[in-house]
Specification:
single chain, 183 residues, mainly alpha, 0% strand, elongated
Length: 183
């Protein structure tokens, strides 16, 4: 969603309402459910069972087709060794995947913390700029903590909307539609 706000003081209420509406719209979450036909599930299970039985039949034929059993045992041990190798490799890859997932989670948490720190610093900077501008003109300033909270809220909203916009642009680019129109 793209929300258009105005920097003018006269449009503050309208901009605030726009940001509130955009926040409410962003918080809407749908939970899609995949419709599964019970017959197709049963059919898929039966196909898997047929495949497993065919593999077992081929294995038994290859073991029984050798005359003295030595060649069959050799090919069986070769297939068993290949299977064990693949099994070990699969286990290694799964553990590596878990490690990388943990790293991604840790980086996500640290990125969120850094973004929150950035929001806080930008809000404080905005309050200081407002105080400096108010002091130079000779006007009284609004409560610094209140203004800091408002600025921080607006900055968080702006950053989340930018992130959402970037995610939509990336999704459009993946689909192939391009993202020329998204700003």
């Amino acid at each position: 969603m793209i929300a258009c706000i105005s920097p003018a003081d006269s449009n503050f209420d309208e901009s605030l309402n726009t940001l509130k509406y955009a926040n409410r719209a962003r918080n809407i979450q749908n939970k899609p459910v995949v419709n599964k036909d019970p017959h197709s599930l049963q059919l898929a299970a039966l196909k898997d069972q047929i495949t497993q039985l065919q593999l077992e039949l081929l294995k038994n034929r290859s073991m029984g087709s050798s005359g003295n059993g030595a060649a069959g045992e050799g090919s069986s041990s070769l297939a068993s060794a290949d299977f064990e190798l693949l099994k070990r490799r699969n286990t290694e890859l799964e553990s590596r995947n878990r490690e990388l997932g943990a790293q991604v989670s840790a980086l996500t948490v640290s990125e969120r913390k850094a973004a929150e720190d950035l929001f806080s610093l930008q809000a404080k900077m905005g309050v200081l700029e407002l105080k400096a501008n108010g002091a130079s003109v000779g006007k009284s300033t609004v409560d610094g903590e209140e203004m800091e909270g408002v600025l921080e809220t607006h900055l968080k909203t702006i950053m989340s909307l930018r992130a959402e916009n970037q995610a939509l642009a990336d999704a459009m680019q993946m689909v192939g539609g391009g993202a020329e129109g998204v700003v």
